[in-house]
Amino acid sequence: KLITNWFRKSTWSGRYINFYSNHPLKYRINTIYNLIDHAFLLSDDCFKQENIKLVYDTLLNNCFPEHIIHRHIRKRINFLNNRDRNDTVDVNSTDPDKTHFISVPYVENTSQDLYRLLRNSGFNVIYKVTKKLNNLIRCGKDSLHNNDKTSVVYKLYCNDCNLSYIGQTKRHLRTRVKEHCNNIKLHESNHSVISKHRLESGHDFDWSKPHILHNEKYVSKREIACMFFIKRFKNLINLQKDTDSLNNIY
Questions:
Q1: FRET label pair with 46: which of 16, 114, 163, 180, CA 20 to 30 Å apart?
Q2: How many domains does the structure of the chain reveal?
């Protein structure tokens, strides 16, 4: 017989979300459920009581009240014991509506009201905590030059007039700017709006000082930010179609 137990690394500290930290209550309760899942599902019956006791002590050390621990440990264990009997999947049922997720900053008391409004409008709300340790503690690394940054929305200025161009890239900004500069060497049919402006007016752009408007690692958010800035600024050579996908709310 193969017997398994919940394995914890030697570096395991037992530190989890403190119950009195600025996190949504459901995230703190989920911490209990996740620990019970590990203790219950990864362990043979002979280890379960020992592991549940470890979960209990760990939660106490993270300032969870005893009545909260007792209630939710019991609730989760009952769920795990009965899940095979209660869980049924209808393979023929399909949800015609795609689930929409929205991420909002967590502000105690205020976010709960916003959560109810968004849920009633068909959104699945995910909270994010804006103040993190890395906002306060810096690792001491040298800051990157603008040209070495990635996942940015940028602006290029014409040296000879008040026109400019806004774009976005996931690669190093230096690489994207070099592509803009060299695009003029391609066949006329492949010229960008920047190359067309250079040829038609005899102007040139300031390739050495691109201005970063926004940093965003997620491509969909970066594209929205790019379209937003195109709408916001005047005297741009961007094509009108560059903002066709921008929601009217902006």
A1: 16
A2: 3
